[in-house]
Specification:
- By secondary structure, this protein is mainly alpha-helical.
- The chain is about 70% helix and about 0% strand.
- Helix 2 packs antiparallel against helix 3, helix 3 packs across helix 4 and helix 4 crosses helix 7.
- The longest helix has 24 residues.
- The N and C termini lie far apart (about 55 Å).
- About 10% of the residues have low confidence.
Length: about 190
């Protein structure tokens, strides 16, 4: 498999096949990260397009000081913030509620499926209540698997700020999820 740095070198020479491969490899992560910031699929798609255009035009600027994914998510962060600043709020269809899951090896009861869906809604609701900075840290940690130093580099904030945001986000999530667990069950 071709490494990301090699793809960027080829992209810098105008190699469209390398760009297509790079896009396929990273589009999901960029879109998911952008969606957590801009909060709607239309704007997240716009950010994805802008990020990939930036890679196409300026892929040669990758210095190798961080992983390609860290570099790419830093670009995504900047483009997402720009999108939020310039975005005029429109009512968009919320396509972010669509969860695609593999149906392979699923053997669960209807109750298991209903409980998992309900818990997923609780988590999604609680994540939506977090401030943008807190939500980004949670997303990068738990959904992208980044370390605190990597997150600090992506968001261009001190590592201590990342830790503080994570601690605060965990407390807020715990309190929010606790509200759902304490609600009486409708029968």
């Amino acid at each position: 498999m071709v490494q990301d740095a090699e793809l960027l070198a080829k992209i810098a020479t105008g190699d469209q096949v390398a760009m297509e491969c790079f896009y396929k490899r990273h589009a999901g992560a960029v879109y998911g990260f952008a969606l957590k910031t801009v909060k709607n699929p239309v704007d997240a798609s716009e950010v994805l397009n802008e990020v990939m255009m930036e890679v196409w035009k300026k892929g040669h600027t990758y210095s190798g000081n961080s992983s390609v994914k860290t570099w790419l998510l830093a670009i995504s962060h900047h483009k997402s913030v720009d999108q939020v600043r310039k975005s005029v709020r429109h009512d968009h269809d919320d396509e972010s509620n669509i969860d695609v899951q593999s149906s392979e090896n699923l053997s669960c009861s209807l109750l298991d499926i209903e409980l998992a869906a309900e818990n997923g809604r609780y988590v999604k609701t609680c994540l939506g209540e977090l401030a943008n900075g807190h939500r980004q840290v949670v997303y990068l940690t738990f959904y992208e698997g980044h370390s605190y130093p990597e997150i600090a580099a992506i968001l261009e904030i001190p590592e201590g700020t990342v830790k503080t945001r994570m601690m605060s986000a965990k407390k807020q999530l715990l309190a929010c999820l606790g509200r759902f667990l304490l609600e009486p069950v409708a029968t």
